[in-house]
Amino acid sequence: MSYYAVLTFVVTSVFAYLVGNRKGRLDSQQSQAVAERERTLRKEERAGRTRAEASKRLRELTSQSPGAALKEGPTVYPLKPIGILESCFRQRNGTPRQPLLVPAAKARLKLRPGIPHACLEGLQGYSHCWIIYIFHRNTDLQDLWRGDDRGLKAKVQVPKLNGQRVGVFATRTPHRPNPVGLSVAAIDSVDIDTVVFRGADVVDGTPVLDIKPYIPYVDGGVRATAPEWVKDDNESSVLHIADVRLADGVSATLQQRWQESLTDKATRPLCDNAAEFTELLVQVLSRDIRSLHQRLQHVNAVPRHVNHRGGNDPHVSQYRVMLDGMDVLYNFDESGSIEVVDVDIDRLYGETNS
C-alpha cells in the first residue's frame, strides 16, 4: 500500500472516530436531557396531585356538615395560644367558680412573640371582654389525649346542689369533652402587648386562645332564664358565707409579709399593695371555696381539726388557700363564719416556679 493510501486511511478512520464519538456524546446528552425532563415532569405531576388533593380535602372539610366530619373521626384545627395568663389564683382551690364574682382579682396577658401588637389596638375602648382559654390544670386532661371518648363524664357534681349530678353541658364545669373555657372580665388596662384584667375566674398559667370584646347590646341584651340553683348567691345559698374577718394581729402580719414578697421575684404579686390584697382575700372567702368533700366532712364533724390557736374545737375546721403569692390560713366555724388566722409568703410556689 502506498504512503498516500495509508495516510488517507488513517485520516478517514480518525475522522470517523471523532464524528462517531461526538455523535455518541450528543446522544448521551440528549438522553440525559430527556431523562431529566421526564423526572421534572413527574415531580411537577406529583406536586400537582398533592396540591389538588390538599385543595380537595380542604373543600371537603369546609363544606361538609358537622355530622359528616365527626363520622370521619377527630379533626385537628390550627389553634395556638396567643399568650399565657398570669393570675392571682395560683391554684384551682380558691379560683372563683364564675367570672366577676371577685372584682379585685387581677390577671395579666402578654401576647406571645409573633402576635402583632396592633392586634390590641382599639380594645381599650371596651370595658369588658371575653377570654377563651384551655383548662390546662384539669385532672382528666391526660385522658383526652387518647383521642377517644373513653372515660368521658356525662354528669358532674354541682357545688350549689350539694353534689347532685347534672349533665356536663348544663354546667360550666372544667371537665368537658373539649377543655375549653369562657370567661368575661373587666379590662383594667391595655399597654402595647399586654392586657390587665379584673374579675377573671382563671387560674395562673392558663393558655389563652383568644380574646373578644364584650358588646352589651348583643351579649347582655337578651331575656335569658336559668334554673333556680344557678341564680345569684344569697343568704339561702349553700355557698353563702355569713362573715369574713381577720384575727387580731393578722393585718400587721399581712402588711409585713407583703413587703417581703415584693423582694421575692418568684411570688410575682399582681395586687398593688397589702390593702388591695386584703380586699381580694375577703372577696374570695365571701363564698365557700371548699370542695364538696371538705364541706361534708365539716357537716359530719369528721375528722376534728386542730385550730390555729392550739385548741381542739370540733366546731372549727381549718383550711388554707394560696392567693397572689401568699399562703393564707383560715378557720371555718359551724355558724358559717370565717376567721383568717395567719398569712405567709407562698414558699412552695416560689420554689416550684423559680
What's the short version?
By secondary structure, the chain is an alpha+beta fold. It has helices spanning 3-63, 66-71, 141-144, 216-219, 250-261, 274-285, 292-300, 347-352; strands at 83-87, 106-111, 128-134, 155-157, 165-167, 180-191, 194-198, 206-213, 243-246, 316-323, 326-333, 337-345.
Overview of the structural elements:
The chain is of the alpha+beta class and 354 residues long. The chain folds into 3 domains: 3-71; 83-138 and 179-224, Beta Barrel (Elongation Factor Tu (Ef-tu), domain 3), CATH 2.40.30; 243-352, 2-Layer Sandwich (YaeB-like fold). Helices cover 32% and strands 22% of the residues. The protein has 8 helices and 12 strands. The chain has helices at residues 3-63, 66-71, 141-144, 216-219, 250-261, 274-285, 292-300, 347-352, and strands at residues 83-87, 106-111, 128-134, 155-157, 165-167, 180-191, 194-198, 206-213, 243-246, 316-323, 326-333, 337-345. The strands form 3 sheets. A 6-stranded antiparallel beta barrel has the order 1-2-7-6-3-8. Strand 4 (155-157) and strand 5 (165-167) form a beta hairpin. The longest helix is centred in the first third of the chain and has 61 residues, at 3-63. It is elongated. Residues 300-310 and 350-354 have low confidence and may be disordered.
